[in-house]
Amino acid sequence: EMRKTDAPQLRDEYRSYRILAGQPGIPDVHYFGQEGLYNVLCIDLLGPSLEDLFDMCRRRFSTKTVAMLAKNMLTRIQTVHEHNLIYRDIKPDNFLMGYPRSPSFNMVFMVDFGMAKQYRDPRTQQHIPYRERKSLSGTARYMSINTHLGREQSRRDDLEALGHVFMYFLRGSLPWQGLKAATNKQKYEKIGERKQQVGVRELCESFPPEFGIYLSTVRKYAFEETPDYDFLRGLFDAVLANLGETDDGMYDWRLLNNSHGYESSSATVAAARQTAQPRASGAYKADNHHISNQALRSYDNVAHRQSTPNMDHSASNTPGKLSRERLSPVDAQAPDRGTGALSPGGDAQQMAKINGLVHHSTDAANVTAQAQNAHAAHNGHAHEKHGFMFKIKSAFGCCSSSSV
């Protein structure tokens, strides 16, 4: 990004990486500093994003792949939350697989923490207060209903957005995509209204009931409530068990090219990238718009706000005073409490809880769970050299990736 930008995000992103340093699925930072007119952040070189892989798999993932991804993505979000941060920009572009042929090639990584925010004090564990009339932050397609309504985000909103990503992978698209409106504001409102109109039953119809249970559960969480991550992960263990599958890491893209994987055929990758726009961090498809805090600054006095599909809209172009509320410059962090799946002694209790919910909401068969540990997450295309990614955000609010 430009050194003199009015709304610098790269330093905040660097602080997030420092807080999360050493955690599974979080890339290492190799350099942060100033180069000429730019602030520069260099992180590990990673593989394609889940959005890229979705394109390679003809824009539909199998239920098995989504269940395995769900466990891994949940674990990454849990790690972020346990380090006192909320992510606030959940989308497939921001989760990347490890670099091909590296030991972590099959691990999910999480990247692009420019919108992350501290939701509680690392020392006192005091949670931020509930507020309304907030500007939208995140990607309209996936953000929670409460975010559309202008409510302060917390852990529940990351998890709801994650549920929308799961259904996007299963369905191939979401019911609120492709809506038309005269202005961005009207477009965002239409998306929010449509999300409220489409119930969980309709959204998750014809898919395993655990996906509906997940969304219903996270939408009911209170603002400060600590999510039951083990229970939520257990839902996807149940999906795998009912399919007669295990979490073996054999994702759909590994079955491409006669099970040689996506990276074995340059033609396959080239065809997929012709279909999909390049997605460097911060660059968004026209129908998958990213909204920053200040993008809708002029609408801060609207009490109830709902969001809508998507056009490219650069926050850098918004004049006037900027809303800054991301990370406070605190290096302290809460002790890591781990991110495992169901605890050995808690399987029966957790699965009884899952079974009760399934039978209460559907006639589906009994749910069984097999607990396994998950992996990690990241974002956008990377260009390789020296084993890390060189990330420069331009003055126009978009990011480009170039090699070093």
UniProtKB/TrEMBL annotation:
Keywords: Kinase, Transferase. It is an enzyme of class 2 (transferase). Residues 305-348 are annotated as: Disordered. GO terms for molecular function: ATP binding; protein serine/threonine kinase activity. Its EC number is 2.7.11.1. This is non-specific serine/threonine protein kinase. It comes from the Eukaryota. InterPro entries: CK1_Ser-Thr_kinase (IPR050235), Kinase-like_dom_sf (IPR011009), Prot_kinase_dom (IPR000719), Ser/Thr_kinase_AS (IPR008271). Gene3D superfamilies: Transferase(Phosphotransferase) domain 1 (1.10.510.10). PANTHER family: CASEIN KINASE-RELATED. The keyword Transferase applies.
